[in-house]
Amino acid sequence: MCTLEKRGDIYILTLTGDDDHRLNPTLLDSITAAVHRVRSESTAPSALITTAHGKFFSNGYDLAWSQSDPQRHILMSSKLRLLVRDLISLPMPTIAAVTGHASAGGFILAQAHDYVLMRKDRGFLYMSEMDIKLVVPDWFVKLLKNRIGSAAALRDVVLRAEKVTAEAAVAKGIIYSAHDGAAETVEAAVRLAEELVKRNWDGEVYGRNRKVLLGDVLPALNFDETVEDVGHANLLSSRL
């Protein structure tokens, strides 16, 4: 599912394999366990890089797995929200090295990091909800509003389902930087991580300041109306 490598004070979490890294409970649990390990092991100023093998960074929720039972979608949402909460509270800088497509929940996973770096030669960012006839959860939008400064760019991402390439994403202020290929993107992420670690910041202060910065996102993570309503309706129907 994923591996965790430590290079000095830098942790590199890699989604492994050549699939599209759909966010089902198994993968989400694997990522969350790695993040918890980073939290427990780090004793000095550190940084976390998240990246992936293959064509995809992550193609979002595993909708094929969840379509047979609404409770499965509720479970995926709950686990992704817990992972995002963990990333927001992690006491170190976080960097997403996006080396392939990042769609819907995969886009959100990338944007849950402090910095997003992306390869130029392949891949795009894509909020697919308009195209697949799904409502975007409020907590997705809250996070995106904190990461995308331009209202026009946010509109195009959410309401036009624009497939944003790396260079366009830099121009729109959606990501931090763009790089020639997958290896170059990860190398750039390592260089950035090294620069941030050298600042010798107090990790707990860093994490608390991030929580202040994303103060409107944290309460939104307690609820996902796009699945809770389905679950409530399912519960009512089971009682009839």
UniProtKB/TrEMBL annotation:
UniProt name for this protein: Delta(3)-Delta(2)-enoyl-CoA isomerase
This protein's UniProt keywords: Lipid metabolism
Record EC number: 5.3.3.8
GO CC terms of this entry: peroxisome
CDD domains, A to Z: crotonase-like
Protein family: Belongs to the enoyl-CoA hydratase/isomerase family.
PANTHER family: ENOYL-COA DELTA ISOMERASE 1, PEROXISOMAL, ENOYL-COA HYDRATASE-RELATED
Upper lineage: Eukaryota, Viridiplantae, Streptophyta, Embryophyta, Tracheophyta
Catalytic reactions on record: a (3Z)-enoyl-CoA = a 4-saturated (2E)-enoyl-CoA; a (3E)-enoyl-CoA = a 4-saturated (2E)-enoyl-CoA
Entry's Gene Ontology BP terms: fatty acid beta-oxidation
MF term (GO), any: delta(3)-delta(2)-enoyl-CoA isomerase activity
Domain of life: Eukaryota
One matching Pfam family: ECH_1
Protein's pathway: Lipid metabolism; fatty acid beta-oxidation
